[in-house]
Structures are given as structure tokens and as C-alpha cells.
Write a structure and sequence with these properties.
single chain; about 500 residues; alpha/beta; 17 helices; about 20% strand
Length: about 500
């Protein structure tokens, strides 16, 4: 029997992982990427002696990366190394409170109690609840397709369904947190986890309180070569397995004949394949690559609310700040107002929560000596035609004022290099519709069931991976989407 061929559209992290898994299964695999580099959002920027990881900057659940090497019979340590963080993130509040989120649970609980007065028992209870939600949802919602009958015929699935009320799907995340903590700063701390998948804690279900378990139980890590080394190490593995990558190779169409995916069309030629996997945002997959087949479009799914986007400033800073760590958060004084601006008013609040990542803290060569590379990000709405030039200018001024105030330093005078990424450029560089980072939002208790499936129900041989489909966005979930796709392909 001749070897079967798989074509993957997009060399994002999920596309690369899918390529590895299918190569291990014996497929001939070719990946077509519109950009001149792999990784999608997980890429890098180098300017004037500063290096920045362009997109994802928090690394959790490294076992899903290691698994790909083990699956291929390789030692992960020969390709990829990382270290566990003692402090996951530092938090700065407008009232002067500072929190260090220690990886060690006892230290973390003590820190919150010492800095805020919140009883340690409340935090311990919350983390236990987070663990329980994970134990109920992990094997069902994250590691398997929700769109196949066999998933629901398994005993562990049925057991999870019987425990469904325990995942707290009918309260909002904020309501659950406000009922569990007395101190508003602690409520805000745990509300922030909704932003990990581009959602609003005042709308999203309390089920998202599973996220603290992923961070505080499994830990947070830093790859020795920076986040982009995840991409590079997996591409190296894929190439060793025979996967062929085609860069600067834009796919124009998925060829469908008699209800079956026959391959793709790119650069004026048809490229035949037995299996086609799209790592492109599902909205663009249908509206660009399957535009000739409107009858195939899942209109309800494509019209769902998109996740939030991001505005990122990449700043070269001519000074070092000992008070800062790898990950830092500067909270808004009015969290509710910030989210109302993002979701209801579709603009940017005057006092946004600022995330500051400084990879040169652990990888000194990412910045010149005595300097730091600042990845400065705020959550913003997806692109719906806002006047971004003005929004960006105002946000930049407000961010600099906030950081200068809380750090006691004139930040503007220290910026010697700047690049900007906004929802428009996120869409153009990564084909993420409207610049939404995580596909659809999770501001709905049924969001997990409403995401697009990993396998087409209408086109034989067509599959989907990446952050816009099940199980969701972020590195771990994208890697799991690849695992699910590999599992449903024979």
C-alpha cells in the first residue's frame, strides 16, 4: 500500500505538532506556510541588539512539548531545555500593594495572606476547587473531541458529566471569586485568569477557575533559548522525521471534489493529498480557502463572538530594574471598567492592566549589557473598525504614565527602540480573524461545546487544529488540538 500524504496549512505550533504526529504514524507530511518563518504567533523579533518573543510568553505544561519528542523516540533534553520559575509573576496594584506569586503553594498562600490579609484557608480552598474542575474536565474537554459519539460512551466521560455542576458553569468567574474572597485585590488576582483565553471574568463561566491549577500546580517555566526555541526545536524534530516545510507559500484553496478533500491549490498548482489539516483560523479557512463552497460554512460558529486581542509594545529599555521579574502585572484600579471598555464599548480604558515580560531577566543576551527588553501588552478588543491610530497613541501615553508612576522612573526617556503589534497586524501576520488571539471568546458556559470541531462533518479528509478550534487557544491547548487530530486520523 502506498504511503499516504498529509498536507498541513500553516506552520503554527499546532500545525508543527500535527506534522510530527502524522509523520510518526507513517504519513508523508508537507507544511505550507504563508510567512517566511515557522511558529505563527510563536515567533520572534530582533531589532538593534534586542530580541523579543513576539507572541506567547508564558510557558506552562511543558509535558505536551516533551511528549512529541518521546513519541518520535527521541530524548526531549537533546532538543529542548527549560527551567521552572520560583516566582510565576509579580503583581503591582495602584494602592502600592505588591505580590509575588510563588510557585511553591505554601509560600504563595502565605504571601497573599501577608500582603492582603485574605485568610490562607480561602486561597487553599480556591486552589482545591481549581484542581477539582481540572480533574473533571481534563480528559473530556481538553484531550478528546467533543464532536464524536465514542467520547460520550466512555465511563470517565459519563462520570464527568454526572459531576458537571461541580465545574460551576452557571456563575460568572467574577461572581464565584467575589463570593470566595473578602479582599478585592485577591478577587482581581484570580479574575485575571479569564484573560488567559481572551475572555471577560464578568461574563465568562466560573469553570475558567480551572486555569490557576494549570499554573500553580503544574508550574510555569522558561525555555533556555526563549519561547521561540519551542518552535525551532519542534521544527527540527519534524524535519528529522521527514516533514517538508514550504515557506512564503500561500495556500489559495482547499480542493474539494465530491465531498472529499483532495489537496490544496497554491501558486497556481494543485497539490494532491489524502489528508488536509488546516492550522489557519477557522474563519479564514472557510472564507478564503473554501469560498467556492458556501454550503459547507458553519455560519453559527463563524458568527460567534471573537476573543479579545492585544496591543503590544516591544521596547528596548536602556536601564535594568531589579524590582521586576520575568513576568509582571500592573493592575488597573477599576477592573470592571476596563472590561466594559473592551467588551461593551469596544475601545481601550484609560487605566489598562499592563503585562510586562522581560526575557532578558533569564536570557541576558536578549538585550545589550545594562539594558532590558520589555514586552509590554494590554488586552484590547478585536478589530471592528476602530480608529486604531488614536487608540494606540492614547494607550501608549497611559501605559507609560502608569509604569512611570508605579516604578518611580520616567519610562519614556528610557525607550531606545520600539515596535508595535496591534489587532490589525496580528490578523495580517497570523491570519487570526479580527486579530482575536484565541479564536472565539469563552464568555458563555457552553463555549467548550460551541468551538469548531477538529474534523469536518461535511468534507471527508479535512481536519482542523490550532487556537480557533477545539479545545482552544494558548500553547498547551494548541498542542492538544494536534493530539486530537492525530487521534481521529486513521
Amino acid at each position: 500500500m502506498p504511503q499516504q500524504k498529509a498536507v498541513i496549512i500553516g506552520a503554527g505550533i499546532a500545525g508543527i505538532a500535527t506534522a510530527i504526529r502524522l509523520a510518526v504514524k507513517g504519513y508523508t507530511v508537507e507544511v505550507y506556510e504563508a510567512n517566511g518563518y515557522p511558529g505563527g504567533k510563536l515567533s520572534e523579533i530582533e531589532q538593534n541588539g534586542y530580541r523579543f518573543d513576539a507572541g506567547p510568553s508564558l510557558f506552562t505544561m511543558p509535558q505536551y512539548v516533551d511528549e512529541l519528542f518521546s513519541l518520535a523516540g527521541k530524548n526531549p533534553a537533546d532538543y529542548f531545555a527549560y527551567q521552572k520559575l520560583d516566582v510565576v509573576c509579580k503583581y503591582f496594584y495602584e494602592d502600592g500593594t505588591r505580590l509575588s506569586a510563588y510557585a511553591d503553594t505554601k509560600q504563595f498562600v502565605k504571601e497573599i495572606e501577608t500582603q492582603t490579609g485574605e485568610p490562607a484557608a480561602s486561597v487553599v480552598k480556591h486552589l482545591a476547587n481549581s484542581r477539582d474542575i481540572y480533574s473533571i474536565t481534563n480528559h473530556v474537554f481538553l484531550e478528546r473531541s467533543l464532536h464524536r459519539l465514542k467520547t460520550y460512551l466512555r465511563w470517565d466521560t459519563l462520570r464527568s458529566i454526572f459531576r458537571f455542576p461541580q465545574i460551576d458553569p452557571f456563575r460568572t468567574m467574577h461572581k464565584a471569586n467575589a463570593s470566595g474572597f473578602k479582599d478585592k485585590r485577591v478577587v482581581q488576582f484570580f479574575d485575571r485568569y479569564a484573560t488567559y483565553n481572551g475572555s471577560d471574568p464578568y461574563q465568562a463561566p466560573a469553570t475558567l477557575n480551572v486555569i490557576p491549577h494549570l499554573e500553580h500546580h503544574f508550574g510555569a517555566y522558561f525555555p533556555d533559548g526563549g519561547m521561540y526555541s519551542i518552535t525551532l526545536s519542534l521544527v527540527k524534530l519534524a524535519e528529522e522525521l521527514g516533514v517538508k516545510f514550504h515557506y512564503n507559500y500561500k495556500v489559495d484553496e482547499i480542493v474539494v471534489i465530491n465531498g472529499k478533500a483532495k489537496g490544496i491549490r497554491a501558486k497556481g498548482e494543485n497539490i494532491l493529498a489524502d489528508v488536509v489539516v488546516s492550522n489557519m483560523d477557522v474563519w479564514f479557512t472557510y472564507n478564503r480557502l473554501l469560498s467556492k463552497h458556501p454550503q459547507l460554512h458553519p455560519k453559527k460558529i463563524l458568527n460567534q463572538e471573537r476573543s479579545s486581542s492585544a496591543l503590544i509594545f516591544y521596547w528596548g529599555i536602556k536601564k535594568q530594574f531589579p524590582a521586576l521579574d520575568l513576568h509582571n502585572i500592573f493592575f488597573s484600579a477599576d477592573y470592571k471598567a476596563e472590561f466594559e471598555h473592551i467588551w461593551q464599548q469596544q475601545d481601550i480604558y484609560k487605566d489598562p492592566t499592563v503585562y510586562l515580560n522581560i526575557s532578558s531577566k533569564l536570557k541576558p543576551d536578549d538585550a545589550p549589557e545594562g539594558c532590558e527588553n520589555w514586552f509590554v501588552m494590554i488586552n484590547v478588543p478585536a478589530n471592528n473598525g476602530q480608529i486604531w491610530t488614536q487608540l494606540i497613541a492614547d494607550a501608549r501615553k497611559n501605559i507609560i504614565a502608569k509604569l512611570s508612576r508605579l516604578l518611580g522612573e520616567d519610562i519614556e526617556s528610557l525607550i531606545v527602540n520600539e515596535s508595535i503589534l496591534d489587532p490589525r497586524s496580528i490578523e495580517s501576520k497570523s491570519s487570526s480573524y479580527k486579530g482575536s488571539i484565541y479564536g472565539t471568546s469563552s464568555n458563555n458556559q457552553f463555549a467548550a461545546f460551541l468551538r469548531h470541531a477538529n474534523q469536518s462533518s461535511k468534507v471527508e479528509g479535512l481536519y482542523f487544529c490550532g487556537g480557533s478550534v477545539h479545545p482552544g487557544g494558548g500553547i498547551p491547548l494548541c498542542l492538544l488540538s494536534a493530539k486530537i487530530v492525530s487521534g481521529v486520523i486513521n
